[in-house]
Design a protein that fits this description.
This protein is α+β, with helices and mostly antiparallel strands. The chain contains 6 helices and 8 strands. Helix 2 packs antiparallel against helix 3, helix 3 runs antiparallel to helix 4 and helix 4 runs antiparallel to helix 5.
Length: 241
């Protein structure tokens, strides 16, 4: 047990160095830095996500019901358990896709850099992978137990997509850098979503910054007015992406 503590400390130090190397690789003097933990999804996906997951869970449960139609009376507990597992597994998948993202921003006199990663506890990876393996093995076991091998091509096949996603899940860090400030000509300010986007020429793409509080948003807008070209156009609008 005592040997694991130094290893954990080393990993934490390496992670800190990696973050520091990237964030501080942006040239120029630091003007502002902040961290935001927010939901990084378009509004449309936030609304449609639960509907799609619920529809998929109901479809799988209907397939289970159809495959076991003549045996439900004798295996009601198995049928109920499988439906509960399906909803639980897909509910977990929904939680994965709806997790908040941690953004670390650093703005300098030359531009802005961001490091972002999904917010999960350390045990999330093993938990998701273990759950996926358990569910797939459980469905296969039930198929053999009920002597219904065709069951393998129904609910099991439909659940493999979610299981594959969970098995391959990895919480990776991503990094982005902006272009120099003087190349940006437009700014979209979405106050309800606490998002500011700077654009060069195309207003449908740009460097996004997200905020957890209004104070940092206003401070960043003040910074942009001082660093972007004087001709830059600021627009209050909804950012749909």
């Amino acid at each position: 047990m005592h040997k694991e503590k130094p290893d954990n400390d080393i990993k934490q130090n390496e992670a800190s160095i990696e973050q520091s190397d990237f964030i501080h690789s942006m040239e120029g003097s630091q003007l502002m830095s902040w961290t935001s933990k927010v939901l990084n999804q378009p509004r449309r996906e936030i609304i449609l996500g639960p509907i799609i997951i619920l529809g998929l869970a109901m479809t799988i449960c209907l397939a289970i019901t159809w495959k076991m139609w003549g045996q439900i009376g004798e295996n009601l507990d198995i049928w109920s358990g499988m439906c509960v597992i399906v909803f639980t597994m897909l509910g977990g998948l929904l939680l994965i896709t709806r997790q908040k993202t941690i953004f670390n921003y650093r703005a300098t006199t030359t531009g802005i850099a961001v490091e972002h990663t999904l917010y999960y506890p350390e045990f999330a990876g093993p938990l998701f992978k273990g759950s996926a393996i358990f569910v797939v093995l459980l469905f296969i076991g039930i198929a053999f137990y009920t002597n219904s091998l065709i069951f393998l091509f129904g609910p099991v096949a439909m659940s493999l997509g979610a299981a594959k996603f969970l098995l391959g899940w990895k919480n990776e860090k991503k990094y982005e850098k902006s272009r120099p400030w003087n190349e940006y000509n437009f700014v979209t300010v979405d106050r309800p979503s606490s998002v500011v986007v700077i654009h060069r020429t195309d207003k449908t793409v740009g460097f996004e910054t997200r905020f957890e509080n209004k104070k940092n948003l206003e401070q960043y807008l003040k910074l942009l007015k001082e660093t972007l070209p004087k001709t830059a156009v600021f627009t209050e609008d909804t950012w749909p992406y």
